[in-house]
Amino acid sequence: MHLNLTGQTVAVLGAARGIGRAIAGNFLAEGCQVRGFDRDPHPSPLPAPGTMAIGDAAAYEQVTAFADTCGDVDHLVFSVGVGSGKFGFPFWNLEPGDWARVLEVNLIAAVNAAHAFAPRMVRRGRGTMLFLTSVAGQIGSQTDPPYSAAKAGLINFMQCAAKDLAPFGVRVNALAPGMVRTDLNESVWAAGQRGLPAAQQQDYATWGAEKIRKVAPLGRWQLPEEFAAMAIYLASDHARNITGQTLNIDGGQVMHS
Ligand SMILES: NC(=O)c1ccc[n+]([C@@H]2O[C@H](COP(=O)([O-])OP(=O)(O)OC[C@H]3O[C@@H](n4cnc5c(N)ncnc54)[C@H](O)[C@@H]3O)[C@@H](O)[C@H]2O)c1
Q1: What pLDDT was estimated at residue 247?
Q2: Is the minimum distance from the CB of 72 to ligand 1 under 6 angstroms?
Q3: Which residue, judged by its Cα, is nearest atom 42 of ligand 1?
Q4: Residue 5 carries which DSSP code?
Q5: Ligand 1 contacts CB of residue 105 (under 6 A)
Q6: Pure H helices in the chain
Q7: 180 contacts 222 by C-beta, under 8 angstroms
Q8: Given this model, what pLDDT does residue 210 score?
Q9: Res 3: pLDDT
Q10: Which of 62, 132, 178, 232 is 20 to 30 Å from 224 by CA-CA measure?
């Protein structure tokens, strides 16, 4: 299948690691010009000098400054995410004060990105946006309540943005992972182990295998490459009738009618 993305420009927030890094790499492989943004000066997945900016996606002025350096962008991908770092079951394991930063990074930062990149897409009458949310945002996951609530908010905002931007030829969608072996996923495991009696503690591989067996009918980890494949498809004209959708790549964990 030819996606015809060659020469198009893509901005990826959260491009240094995990799913965002794989998505950036896949757009590059399609012949796109990719600009990355991340808080982490991790060795860049983007080879050309100046294509990776360092900043905090929760700081609107840093995101608008990045957008200004990108110029006209065909596709925006938001793959930033963090957990609270605490085991959220029951919810009073967290303090109310633990919520603000989680909401800022997972939800407000995504809104920042949409605000910063929408005006140019509207002016040009084309573009796509893709937000990484989570199955947690669809099921009231007890693992990390502020993360779960932020991801639910992000799905809702994505739908608002999809409706607002449709008349301007801009499509907006979300991808929802279940279990992907990344730093973020490992941090969820680490938070869960803290405070458990030694006899109940599990290593990361055992915890992951057990959780996947319980929640995902297909019974396997999802891979960053699977999100990268869907990201380039959604950016292409083959997906011209897809907007406002949350696509779960989760081994069947959450099923919708
Ligand atoms: N890994 C999973 O199992 C899983 C499950 C559900 C949802 N997700 C979602 O997928 C997306 C990608 O996560 P991942 O698993 O690749 O995690 P990751 O930790 O590997 O990557 C997240 C990236 O976001 C960057 N980042 C974090 N806070 C930032 C900030 N304030 N400003 C700029 N950059 C920031 C990190 O440095 C990192 O490069 C996230 O939105 C996450 O919530 C992941």
Answers
A1: 98
A2: no
A3: 81
A4: -
A5: yes
A6: 18-29, 60-70, 99-103, 109-124, 136-139, 145-165, 183-193, 204-215, 224-235
A7: yes
A8: 97
A9: 96
A10: 62
Closest C-alpha to 128, from 253, 19, 32: 32
User: In a mutational test of the pocket of ligand 1, which residue from 13, 19, 107 has the highest number of ligand atoms less than 8 Å from its CB?
Assistant: 19
The predicted structure's pLDDT at residue 203: 96
pLDDT tens-digit series, residues 40-63 = 988 777 877 779 999 999 999 999
Q: What is the pLDDT of residue 28?
A: 95
Angle between helices 145-165 and 109-124 (to 10 degrees): 10
The predicted structure's pLDDT at residue 2 = 95
Intervals of the chain under pLDDT 70: none
User: 3.90.190.20, 2.60.120.1600, 3.40.50.720, 3.40.50.300: which CATH number matches 9-182+221-249?
Assistant: 3.40.50.720
- Looking at residue 216, what is its pLDDT? 97
**Residue 181: per-residue pLDDT:** 98
State the pairing for strand pair 33-38/9-13.
parallel
Contact 158, 175 (CB under 8 A): no
82 lines ligand 1 (CB under 6 A): yes
Are 33 and 50 in contact by the 8 Å Cβ rule? The answer is no
Report pLDDT for 166.
Answer: 98
Q: Is 180 in the pocket of ligand 1 (CB under 6 A)?
A: yes
Q: Can you give the pLDDT at residue 46?
A: 80
User: Which among 134, 177, 167 is positioned nearest to 243, based on CA atoms?
Assistant: 167
Place of tokens 């406002």: 244
Q: Distance (Å, rounded) from C-alpha 202 to C-alpha 210?
A: 10
Cα 56 from Cα 225, distance rounded (Å): 25
